[in-house]
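PROTEIN DESIGN WORKSHEET
SECTION A - STRUCTURE
LENGTH: 871
TOKENS:
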């Protein structure tokens, strides 16, 4: 990996911010005036530079003073009021002080050298807890632990006080968090951009076996990890009308006026790199309104109207992904996406204009990655800003757009392909809909020129889908606008070329469509989540260099057969299982045996992920155990079946799957004849911190989506990195994991992706074709063994009148055989331990560092730019 070295000209460049908002040189931006020159500014600059050089020493005495200072002045605590929450907050603020210093150095260095940055636009960033991550990145975990012990507090109890940031839902957000971690660690200039949701999607509680959603008020306590930026605020318009007029060059220009204007205010979240001076940033937008209070309405006694604008603004970024089962929810989500896109593009443009470079150089300094389709409104917004606000011609602007954007597609499921009704866009974003019409028209004209007289091709490839109503296909718009489109696993990238984007390849060429297999951050998912295993690996490698280079884990294979090493490996796994068992008892009030096989499926609850098939197999196992003579039963392998994940609030069938899991658990766990031979656990409110407890404890993890439906998955990588084995279908990243760790170390089953459509369309469900074991399981449910069978009738109907879209009945027999293979393999403990070690040793490919390096070199064209220490 090459290191970026700035040219002498770039190093000498002095950049100057454009004039402030008083001159209206940048429409939509609100900035406080700053002192542009003079003695005061020179003095302040000198003092701040001296301050930057004075990095605090990392010793117990210094850390203790910093914590006490924040307890006294930031939190205004007196000794008797200091508890573990206050101690956590004071510790976090003291760590943040160090991060901010490095953050300032990083941003100043990158701006001074005018390096090209990538801006990673994602509607989700599933960050998890930040204090432990920051301490490990800065090498301060031990000194803070010693300091807190000296103050009478325990590090673990303080870490537990941190709430998980409610900025994401699942894999999309966790991937984004891993990628920003890798950008920082690998010294690549880049920022994340997202929204600051005041409430997460929801906190999940289980009531009578059903998922119940309650508000996730993750900002209930102060959040030390965000830096409010009230001086960085951009105007974002909705509704209104568009007018046009000819300019002095007789070019038609458009102006968007009226409507509703909100303001997006920035919050910055510093993200430290591991073992580097580079601290990058995630900038999150919160919506507000400048005219928050209507005094006239208040004086007239209309108090609700007086606060209406404020409430409308707050609603926009109140909740992650509002329920869009109704029109109001759809409009709110569309507004969320545009607020995010508009504020981000305005901010990027403001930063570019500070360089004083010509517009043609914009793609030389800016790369924008669209993480799925949610940020795609950034395409027409950048075109609008360049044409309507900056006065560029359409072609000049479109060339910049094409050279700036790249797009990651994350799905092949039709229901997940984002579409917006044309009528809704025309109402809420009238100028953008007209731009989308023009983008699509000019694109189709070029396609028609290359492929004349093929009107069906034009229909298939159009960004606007005909129907009632017409819909804008956001994936198509992102594809048309971006210079590169990537899938997230080899099999997924091939599938999208054969399906979603098949008709684009003859026009654009196959080179536009590439693969970038997802990756995970080893800092979070091994070093932090599994500290005992991390220590053992460090001993074997000889230092901690493996944390930034997973290729060094291959040395672990040399220890297979080393009795002492394998004994320690097994002991660490057992300790992690005991930790999870303690958590399950505390949270679920279920006592499980850590000596049993821990079989885990944790992820968003969805029909295609087939938690339904998993629980059907659990019922099959339960039926078998009940039918066995006692003597034989006691020879069976004890198992703990662990589930966790949230169903979307409006997803009725997914919620029934959760209900079935909990109903089965209630019966099985209370059956004294079965005892520890089978336990079923549903852990509520799955999040990053819960995952950090579950993943290191797994013996087996299930990744059993219908072939061709899971784009990649990243939890599969996390489990394998921690020495767990996969039971899975030939889908997503499972395919590449198998290639890396070997077929003997993964348990594959089920139909292949290219067989799915044939099964769906030529072998539709027929009752007589059901496997006998599945018939028996369905009969058990319908007998009332797990409660009122009427409750589960709609779920069972998905295998009947629903057509079994996700092929549960087709794959069930091979799934049962694969489970038997897992059981046989686990009984051979020496071979199982060897398999576990090989899994960890061979997972280097799935580091997010590798993925980011590929993006940087092959898509973004950015260079590493390590920030030198000023100390």
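SECTION B - SEQUENCE
RESIDUE ASSIGNMENT:
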């Amino acid at each position: 990996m090459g290191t970026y070295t700035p040219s002498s000209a770039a190093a000498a460049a002095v950049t100057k911010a454009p004039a402030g908002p008083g001159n209206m040189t940048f429409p939509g931006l609100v900035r406080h005036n700053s002192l542009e020159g003079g003695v005061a500014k020179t003095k302040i600059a000198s003092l701040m530079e001296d301050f930057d050089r004075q990095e605090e020493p990392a010793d117990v005495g210094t850390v203790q003073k910093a914590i006490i200072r924040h307890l006294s002045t930031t939190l205004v605590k007196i000794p008797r009021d200091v508890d573990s929450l206050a101690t956590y907050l004071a510790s976090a603020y003291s760590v943040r002080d160090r991060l901010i210093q490095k953050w300032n150095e990083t941003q100043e260095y990158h701006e001074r050298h005018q390096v090209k940055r990538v801006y990673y636009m994602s509607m989700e960033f599933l960050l998890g807890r930040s204090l432990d991550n920051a301490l490990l990145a800065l090498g301060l975990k031990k000194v803070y632990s010693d300091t807190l012990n000296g103050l009478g507090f325990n590090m673990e109890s303080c870490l537990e006080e941190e709430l998980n940031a409610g900025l994401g839902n699942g894999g999309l957000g966790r991937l984004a968090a891993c990628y920003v971690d890798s950008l920082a660690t690998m010294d690549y200039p880049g920022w994340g951009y997202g929204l600051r949701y005041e409430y997460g999607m929801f906190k999940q509680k289980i009531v009578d076996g059903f998922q119940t959603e309650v508000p996730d008020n993750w900002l209930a306590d102060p959040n030390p990890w965000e830096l409010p930026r009230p001086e960085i605020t951009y105007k974002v318009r909705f509704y209104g009308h568009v007018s046009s007029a000819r300019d002095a060059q007789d070019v038609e220009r458009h102006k968007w006026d009226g409507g509703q204007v909100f303001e997006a205010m920035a919050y910055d979240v510093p993200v430290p790199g591991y073992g580097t001076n580079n601290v990058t940033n995630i900038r999150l937008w919160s919506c507000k309104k400048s005219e928050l209070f209507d005094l006239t309405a208040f004086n007239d006694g209309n108090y609700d109207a007086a606060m209406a604008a404020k409430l409308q603004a707050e609603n926009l970024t109140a909740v992650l992904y509002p329920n869009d089962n109704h029109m109001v929810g759809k409009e709110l989500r569309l507004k969320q996406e545009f607020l995010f896109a508009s504020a981000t593009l305005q901010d990027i443009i403001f930063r570019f204009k500070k360089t004083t470079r010509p517009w043609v150089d914009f793609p030389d300094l800016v790369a924008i990655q669209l993480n799925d389709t949610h940020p795609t409104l950034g395409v027409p917004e950048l075109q609008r800003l360049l044409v309507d606000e900056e006065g560029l011609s359409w072609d000049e602007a479109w060339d910049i757009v094409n050279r700036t954007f790249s797009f990651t597609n994350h799905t092949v499921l039709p229901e997940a392909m984002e579409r917006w009704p044309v009528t809704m866009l025309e109402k809420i974003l009238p100028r953008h809909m007209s731009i989308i019409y023009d983008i699509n028209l000019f694109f189709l004209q070029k396609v028609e020129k290359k492929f004349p007289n093929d009107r069906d091709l034009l229909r298939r490839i159009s960004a606007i889908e005909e129907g009632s109503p017409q819909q804008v296909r956001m994936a198509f718009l992102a594809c048309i606008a971006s210079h590169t489109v990537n899938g997230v696993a080899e099999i997924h990238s091939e599938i999208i070329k054969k399906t979603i984007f098949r008709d684009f390849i003859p026009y654009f060429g196959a080179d536009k469509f590439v693969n970038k297999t997802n990756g995970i951050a080893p800092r979070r998912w091994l070093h932090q989540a599994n500290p005992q295993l991390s220590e053992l690996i460090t001993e074997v490698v000889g230092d901690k260099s493996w944390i930034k280079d997973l290729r060094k884990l291959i040395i672990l294979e040399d220890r297979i057969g080393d009795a002492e090493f394998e004994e320690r490996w097994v002991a660490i796994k057992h300790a992690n299982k005991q930790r999870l068992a303690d958590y399950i008892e505390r949270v679920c009030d279920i006592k499980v045996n850590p000596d049993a096989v821990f079989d885990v499926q944790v992820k968003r609850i969805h029909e295609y992920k087939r938690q339904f098939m998993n629980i059907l197999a659990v019922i099959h196992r339960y039926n078998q155990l009940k039918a066995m003579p006692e003597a034989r039963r006691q020879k069976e392998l004890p198992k703990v079946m662990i589930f966790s994940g949230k169903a979307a609030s409006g997803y009725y069938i997914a919620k029934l799957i959760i209900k079935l899991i909990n109903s089965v658990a209630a019966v099985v766990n209370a059956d004294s004849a079965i005892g520890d031979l089978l336990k079923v656990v549903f852990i509520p409110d799955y999040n990053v911190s819960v995952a950090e407890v579950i993943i290191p404890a797994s013996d087996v993890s299930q990744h059993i989506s219908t072939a061709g439906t899971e784009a990649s998955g990243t939890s599969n990588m996390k489990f394998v990195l921690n020495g767990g084995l996969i039971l899975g279908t030939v889908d997503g990243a499972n395919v590449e994991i198998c290639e890396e760790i070997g077929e003997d170390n993964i348990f594959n089953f089920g139909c292949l992706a290219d067989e799915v459509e044939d099964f769906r369309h030529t072998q539709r469900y027929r009752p007589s074709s059901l496997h006998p074991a599945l018939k028996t399981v369905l009969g058990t449910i319908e007998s009332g063994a797990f409660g009122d069978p009427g409750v589960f009738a709609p779920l069972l109907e998905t295998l009947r009148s629903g057509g079994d879209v996700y092929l549960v009945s087709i794959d069930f027999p091979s799934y049962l055989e694969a489970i038997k293979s897992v059981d046989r393999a686990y009984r051979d403990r020496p071979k199982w331990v060897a398999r576990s070690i090989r899994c960890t040793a061979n997972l280097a490919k799935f580091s997010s560092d590798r993925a980011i390096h590929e993006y940087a070199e092959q898509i973004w064209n950015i260079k590493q730019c390590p920030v030198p220490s000023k100390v």
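SECTION C - NOTES
The longest strand covers residues 260-272.
DSSP finds 36 helices and 23 strands in the chain.
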